[in-house]
Amino acid sequence: MPAAGNLVLLRHGQSVLNAQDRFTGLLDTPLSAAGKAEAARAGTSLASAPFSPAVIYTSTLRRTVDTARLVLTALENPAVPVVPVWELNERSYGALTGRARSELLCELGPEVFHFWRRSYYGAPPPMSGTQLNRIRRSSAFEGLPPEALQATESLCGVVKRVRAFWYRRLRPRLEAGADVLVVGHGNSLRALCCVVDRLTEGEVEALNIPTGHPLLYRFTPGMVPVVRGGEYLDPLAARTAAALVDAAGGT
């Protein structure tokens, strides 16, 4: 049996709506100029690491696909397949989608705001049928099954779909010895960490993953992480960035 491959998790670079501090969720917004720079820096960091991805999994949303392409440019290996999978899509924020976080905090109060934004089981009110249909017409959701587009979603729901992806597609590739890069979103990567590290509900609620910082997982033969929580390639910069995410109320 070959040694398990390495896994790198990368949260996409800052998007245009991230820059506006809005709940982006399933909106297919592009990277900002800062986000493109973050993706390029992540690629440079990976190019100097002992890591050569055989495949890159992304969500179906352009901000992850574009991040992956910029990483491949830095790696100078454009032949690596980029495979979009809907299970890695961002969480549906329901009626919060597109809204400014600062406005909602004032409108809802800190307890309700935190419950809908960060709790494991809390789900915001569903988005309207009009908004749901508008998102459904996006090219990012073309040909996807109905369950790929929820009117609202809890973090628990994201963990459920990401767990299926882990066992069906990601873990078998790693067990076969392939290095894999996963470019996802704040919530889909928190969900994947929950599955890989077997986090408690409290641990995953408290987890913050910064944009543009590669997180490396190495595994034992039994597919247990050598370091629980993984290892950032630039740990000091990643901790600083994660602290800023936490100070802003989390991803």
TrEMBL record:
Pathway: Carbohydrate degradation; glycolysis; pyruvate from D-glyceraldehyde 3-phosphate: step 3/5
Matches recorded under InterPro entries: His_Pase_superF_clade-1, His_PPase_superfam, PG/BPGM_mutase_AS, Phosphogly_mut1
BP GO annotations: gluconeogenesis; glycolytic process
Record's keyword terms, sorted: Gluconeogenesis, Glycolysis, Isomerase
Signal peptide: none
Domain of life: Bacteria
Statement: the UniProt record of this protein carries the keyword Amino-acid biosynthesis: no
Entry keyword Hydrolase: no
Site (Transition state stabilizer): H185
Pfam families from the UniProt entry: His_Phos_1
Catalytic activity: (2R)-2-phosphoglycerate = (2R)-3-phosphoglycerate
MF GO annotations: phosphoglycerate mutase activity
EC number: 5.4.2.11
Listed PANTHER family: PHOSPHOGLYCERATE MUTASE
Matches recorded under NCBIfam families: pgm_1 (TIGR01258)
Alphabetized HAMAP family for the sequence: PGAM_GpmA
Role description: Catalyzes the interconversion of 2-phosphoglycerate and 3-phosphoglycerate.
Family: Belongs to the phosphoglycerate mutase family. BPG-dependent PGAM subfamily.
Annotated protein name in UniProt: 2,3-bisphosphoglycerate-dependent phosphoglycerate mutase
Source organism (scientific name): Paenarthrobacter ureafaciens
